[in-house]
Write a structure and sequence with these properties.
This protein is of the alpha/beta class. The chain has three domains: 158 residues, Lyase, Ornithine Decarboxylase, Chain A, domain 1 (Beta Barrel), CATH 2.40.37.10; 173 residues, TIM Barrel (Alpha-Beta Barrel); 31 residues. Helix content is 31%, strand content 23%. The chain has 14 helices and 21 strands. The strands form three sheets. Strands 4, 14, 15, 16, 17, 18, 19, 20 and 21 form a nine-stranded mixed sheet that branches. β20 and β21 form a beta hairpin. The longest helix is centred in the middle third of the chain and has 19 residues. Bound molecules: pyridoxal-5'-phosphate. The site of pyridoxal-5'-phosphate has 16 residues, from α10.
């Protein structure tokens, strides 16, 4: 789409931005804005690119569902043979519902609840990544009580700085993730003697949006040394999970090339004879999606125009949360001679943080124009909230010249139906109100499960 980010699946044709064969203006006319739009072709070609680069390795690609958990997206990858990396029972249920075979599911996360662990064992997932000694004890206890044995890997904290945004760096000693490398041999030995778990290997994930292979090399080398040490101590290490984190181009970054990444992995792990698991999220979906909004008003600011759009930080949180950059371009291409000017692009929410861009050079836009945010396929729709009681933006997937709404916009009735005002609040503390509330609560809980 936009100038500096050629997105597969999105291009201008006769001045109109299209998702594959469809003008976005046509989808917007039916679906309304704001909405997310994914290109199936972009998803598929991204996956194929990584799978091809890794094809000479014993690799399993487990799409990190947290980057984009729409069932249609997970299903697209599942049909190509992908597994899933999940971090909650909700994501695990999504992966299963999208047709990912349980043996291709990895359950990661620093704070899995006992119920979630039980559910994962019940579902017979391929691997549970254990992030602490207390979690190991809990898992062993739960699995033993169920008469089952959970296949686990230990998430190692390699103490490597990924040189990415502070909030998404996960492999430094002080970060909350994983188990210190030096402690792994002891805990591995403990686990090997437990009836409820089978240690199968180790896992590492040092952060997200990495733009340089250097931290990967440092972490992978430490992990490879660890594998050798564990084997020397008599342990079986069948699997190494190398996590995700491959960065993408949002603006003008040099993204990591899948082939260079695969070459590094080959160099370090080729002779170790392990199954290798990869957990890419952002790199498979980030540039396969956009967010489409409508300009509501163009108002005169202090020294520059302020473009107010109908998308906001509740729809796309990354700019407010990480100061992230997204390209912004009109869906109707401006004539080449149109002079650009610097504008702010903001959403309607009552927070100054609800700002998508400051002093962004853009061709002139007016109320009613469609404005498109690029690279919004990862950590976009999944992070959306209903803040300001705004309805969740729908998600659309395009395939050639057809499209489907793959998550509908809820109605205001849907939104209000989640809540209720207790009778004692309006009637003023009747004696029987506690009982009545218990009944109401049970009713609500039942509805929640159904
Ligand atoms: C978030 C996460 C990923 C995916 O990271 P990306 O940067 O989106 O590739 C993979 N593995 C684990 C354990 C994660 O927490």
């Amino acid at each position: 789409m936009p100038v500096s980010t050629p997105h597969i699946g999105f291009a201008y044709v006769d001045g109109d931005l299209r998702a594959e064969g469809l003008a976005l203006s046509r989808i917007a006319a039916t679906v309304g804005t704001p909405f997310y739009c994914y290109s199936r072709q972009a998803l598929t070609s991204g996956y194929a690119g990584l799978a091809t680069a890794l094809s000479h390795l014993p690799a399993m690609i487990c799409f990190a569902v947290k980057a984009n958990s729409n069932l249609a997206v997970i299903s697209t990858f599942a049909q190509l043979g992908a597994g899933a990396d999940v971090v909650s029972e909700g994501e695990l249920r999504r992966a299963l519902a999208a047709g990912v075979p349980p043996e291709r599911i990895v359950f990661s996360g620093v704070g899995k609840t006992r119920d979630e662990l039980r559910f994962a064992i019940e579902a017979d997932v391929g691997q549970i990544n254990v992030e602490s000694e207390p979690e190991l004890d809990a898992l062993n206890e739960i699995a033993s009580a169920m008469g089952r044995t959970a296949r686990i890997s230990f998430r190692v904290n390699p103490d490597v700085d990924a040189h990415t945004h502070d909030k998404i760096s996960t492999g430094r000693r002080q970060d909350k993730f994983g188990i210190a490398l030096a402690k792994i041999p002891d805990i591995y030995a403990r686990a090997a003697a437990m009836p409820g778990v089978t240690p199968a290997g180790v896992a590492v994930h040092i952060g997200s949006q990495l733009l340089d292979l250097t931290p990967y090399r440092a972490a992978f080398e430490r992990v490879a040394t660890l594998v050798t040490a564990l084997r020397a101590a008599g342990h079986t290490v069948e699997r190494v999970d190398l996590g995700g984190g491959i960065g993408i181009r949002y603006r003008d970054e040099d993204a990591i090339d899948f082939q260079d990444y695969a070459d590094l992995v080959t160099e370090i792990f080729n002779d170790l004879d392990c199954q290798l698991i990869f957990e890419p999220g952002r790199s498979l979906v980030g540039n396969a999606g956009i967010l489409v909004s409508t300009v509501l008003y163009v108002k005169e600011g202090e020294d520059r125009p302020i473009v107010v759009v109908d998308a906001a930080m509740n729809d796309l949180k990354r700019p407010a949360m990480y100061g992230a950059y997204h390209e912004i371009a009109p869906a109707r291409q401006a004539p080449a001679e149109a002079a650009e000017r610097a504008v702010d692009v903001v959403g309607p929410i009552c927070e100054t943080g609800d700002t998508f861009a400051i002093r962004r050079k853009m061709p002139p836009v007016t109320a009613g124009d469609l404005l498109v945010f690029g690279s919004a396929g990862a950590y976009g729709a999944v992070m959306a909230s209903q803040y300001n009681s705004r309805l969740l933006a729908p998600e659309v997937m395009v395939d050639g010249d057809k499209y489907a709404v793959v998550r509908a916009r809820p109605s205001y009735d849907d939104m209000l139906a989640m809540e209720h005002v207790p009778a004692w609040l309006t009637r003023g503390g009747a004696e029987d109100s506690a009982t009545e509330e218990a009944a109401k609560g049970a009713e609500t809980a039942t509805r929640g499960v159904a």
